[in-house]
Every structure is written in structure tokens, then in C-alpha cells.
Amino acid sequence: MLDGHMLHQDHLGNRGDLRSGDVQWMTAGRGIIHSEMPQQERGRMRGFQLWINLPAKEKMKPAAYRDIPAAEIPVVPLAGGGRVKVIAGTLVVSGSSTPGAMQGLSTDPLYFDVELPARGVFSHPVSPDHNVFLYAYEGEVEVGAAGATRPLKSHSAGVLSAGDRIEVTAAADGARFIFLAGRPLREPVVQYGPFVMNTREEIEQAIRDYQSGALTQPAT
To answer: Which residues, in sequence order, are bridge partners of residue 179?
Structure first.
């Protein structure tokens, strides 16, 4: 949640007030029914809702929910100016490692919120076999090493090619972007409405579970 106030509630009894800078991390697992309702009457509301697929062997794990207040998310200053909010995974800069708020996830995600001043640079190692994604939500950036950069305009997403390091340079007005990387599952994906599984048969079973009320019952 970048700006604003959102109320979350679900059928497991979880309730959370998300405010500017807070993060909600929810694992849908075998199923969860939830609502998200804006609470403010004026002012800007903006944020991101991102989905990470679970491996097939984990799709029926118990649902889980965690609110992460902004005060519990590490913020690391960069040597050349700017800062990084470390939401998931571990930030490695200048020989120092900073664990993020979320650790131990099966796809080994990195999830950073990066802010750079004009012409500021963010450089970070990534696993060569991970997929990498950027979204510039304020300002523009150039991606790649000097002499071989590609522009990424504001409110644009970029999926990067294979490599072991990312380098991002902000344009003349500075920039903010989210950086995500994760281990690809290389499994089939079947989606229908809010349901994501690996086969059509599993989707049909999920729909039957929802319609019968079995989705909201404790796992046996």
C-alpha cells in the first residue's frame, strides 16, 4: 500500500487495516474468501496487488495471512542516494546483506521497492535461472549496463532476459520502481475466475468446493 487506507477481512477471522507503507502477505492455499474495502473519504489511494503462483505440491496447504506494518519493513539507503524497501528475500549491496520482512518462500522471491534520485543507480545480483520483472511507477529508468541500456517508461513493465545481475539507472527526474525476481516453477497453469490450479479437473473441483461450502471448512 503506497498511499491510502484499506480494510481487509476474511472467512478465517483475519482483519487488518492497511495504511501507507504497509504490506499484506496472504497465502490462498486450499482456499480463502476475503474482502478489501477502501476506508478513506479523500486523498490518494494507490498500491500494488501481486500474485506469486504456488508449486503444485503446495496448492492445498492451509491458507495463511500476515499484516506487515511499514515499521517492520527494512529500508536500506544506497551509497549514491536513494533507498530500497526490502519486502521479501535478501538485499545485497556494498557487501552487506539485509533480510526482508518475508523469508523462506518456496519460489525464493526477491521483492524490493526502490527509490532513486536523478541519475541514481541500483545494482543487485540475481540467480541466473530466476525470472526478473520491473515496474516503474514514478519516473523513467534505463535498464542494463552502460552502453547497452534499454529505456523503461513510467507506468511500464519490463521482463528481463537471463543474467546474474540487474542494473537500473534513473532518468533526470529520479524514479521509483518495484523489482521482483523468483524461481520459475515450469508447471502448467489453469485459471478460472479467482481460482488458479494446474489442471482443468482441479479447477472444476475447486469450483465444486466453493459452491458446496467445503472450501471454508477446515482441512481433514
So the answer is: 112, 134
